[in-house]
Amino acid sequence: MTTDELLALIDQAEKEGWTELDLAGQGLSELPEEIGKLTQLERLILGKGKKDKDGDQQWGHTLINGKLQWGPLTIGNNLSDLPDCLANLTHLRYLNLSGNSFEEIPGWIAKLSRLETLIAFANQINEISEHIAQLTSLQQLYLSSNQISEIPDSLTGLGSLQQLYLISNQISEIPDSLTGLGSLQQLYLSSNQISEIPDSLAGLGSLQQLYLSSNQISEIPDSLAGLGSLQQLYLSSNQISEIPDSLAGLGSLQQLYLISNQISEIPDSLAGLGLLQQLDLRFNQISEIPDSLAGLGSLQQLYLSSNQISQIPESLENLIKLKTLDVRNNPLPISPEILGSKQKSGSVSGIFNYCRQLRSGDVRPLNEAKLILVGQGSVGKTSLISRLIKDSFNPNEEQTDGLNVSNWQINVNTKDVRLNVWDFGGQEIYHATHQFFLTKRSLYLLVCNCRTSEDENRLDYWLKLIKSFGDDAPVIIVGNKRDEQPLDINRKALRDKYPNIKFIIETSCSDGTGIDELNQAILKEVGQLKEVYDLLPLSWFEVKEKLENLDKDFIKYSKYESICGQQGIEEEKDQTQLINLLHNLGLVLNYSDHPLLKHTNVLNPDWVTTGIYTLLSDDDLKTESKGQLTLADLTRILPPNRYPEQRHTYLIELMKEFQLCFQLPECSPERYLIPGILPKEEPEDTDLEGDTLEFQYHYTVLPDSVISRFIVLMHDKIHEQTYWRSGVMLAYTEGDEVYNIARIKADSADNKIFIAISGNQSTRRLFLGLIRDVFKKIHANFAKPTEWVPVPEHPEHPPLDYQELLGLEDMGEQNVVIGKLKLKLNLRQLLDGYESATSRQQLWQAHKDTDHSDSLYTDDSDIDDEFQIDIFSIK
Question: Model pTM?
């Protein structure tokens, strides 16, 4: 806003008698004296906090005085001083100075005797002025994200103050004088340098919320029990080792957060907190859940993940209001599929039911693990398995087509363990389906050929693929064919980059070199897989064995229910939980949520994988049919004794469930397209006319499945049947009119996907949003790529990081400067081409949440702003 525009606005406000003037985000560096004539103003906003879609304050990192600091996000100005004429605004009740460069609160503020709310977070204020103490009507004082080191005694004069926000400052001490704030209800002091909670704090009889997370507090004083009105107590990310019995005196307490401390024991006295609804003790050293917690009759959410808990007591089932029980990442002998995924804790009823089954009779450890062999084709994976299991070698071993599964009985820690060995074909055609079988609860053998280079073995590709789908699962790199040439790779660099590499071993299947060493390494790593020793109720274990011993590829679900009944598993919820567990373990397949598949069978996974890989390997499908599949092809390709015609439709539905194919429209007989085996060559007619909106994804490794799954998921928008193995043309239409054409293509060599959209500018952004939503669904299953946008009219220049641009906008920057091009781009105009401002704010917030939560934990619970501060400050 220019000076003339501001003066005109002030004149209008005076003439019309405005009571509120909002000047946030106008790029102002000074205010004219004329603003002093707006004596009727009750609200003056020179900066404000950013709100999310629900209207709640957003928090994040802000550049303050050259340093990134955590605090409320703002839409501010460039003001560093305020004119004295503002003292004339004696009717002001609300003054917001957030997101500017003020170093102090001016003395004339004392004349604003009616002021009720003063907000000045995200500035450079280093001292709380004594003039503030003269604002006897003040009810809310927000000074978070500044450089304040001391709370002055003068604040005690604010007898009407109800809320005091001093988050993210440099305060080291809470003064005794604070007890004079008799009306104070909310005290926010998180992310400071406080080491002690003074006894005087107990004098704040009206206090309802106390936030002291991310400080240096080592002890909770007994005096805190004097806060009889306290409802929320936040003490996460401190150095507290003990919960005192005195906390039971907080009779009004509803939420207690003690995340990331050094607590080893939950005292029985906590049962006295009769109104407690949320108890959060994640990331501590707790080894036992006391029965006394069952006395918390109001408890709805109990978070105990990442501790040392080995047992869930039966007494917890008495918590009839409990909606969330998070006990992930503990040494519990319970399958992680029951406890919950990384994204979401398991259901309370499911966890309790499983524990009930374990207590109801005999139990057996699962004593099973998955050994997955990956690597390029012809490196000797199948020969390696023969040496390990049978101590045999066939120099004429045929190359694996798709996937072979075999069992290997080993003895680990004096216990018999069955390794389910999954040998993947290394040919590129199979990589698209690897995602369905690369799991976290596995040991990986990455097999390479000693005779070829590190690049030819694609070690980086495979290690990133394992990381993407298997997270931190242990990996043993096996350099095979050692008898012909030593393995020449940079061992240290690989270990530094991928800490989950446990061993690098050279072997020869022909003469047995290194096989014993590899065998011992496998035994050691399997012995350290916690999931191997997860417990199953004996009856459940017997059902599992009966299913495996049936020697059938599929059975009716009613047959499964009958087998459960024979083992005494009569309850439907128990049968459902067991089949879901066996499905997640990869021991059977059952798709209870699929409209067609749910009514049919319990499947042998080998029947599914063998059938799918047999189809993908068919040369005629790849060359003659160019990826198009008919039911007649299934009859031609699949052995009829194992794949009778009445099961063909079922196999097709499974391939659709795996996003491997889709049905082509208006085809008779029915035809299905498998994008993963389309011709590689890009058609001639893929150029776009006119200017285009462009977007890019950059991956650490680009799984071949990404683009093929995208083509399947977007098949209803394919333009004129134009597709190839690494790309597709899409159309955005309304009625019969085509508004936009998009080209989406993958470059596996550079690990990038390029999106370009031409046509109607008013709908390009909408079309891009639809495309990105589909990629978001695909990316949910593995490590996220980065997003990039090209520099307008400079395609030769490296693209710009989209999240970086969102962050700059969030910090209030107006432009992005590209020095090499001597170019200054208007940030808002650039980003408006991709998303609306509201969508960008939501996306940026989600991106920040994901960035921080991934480093520590992820949860599905509702987490308020203060809790996010707790967690992010740990990082």
Answer: 0.72
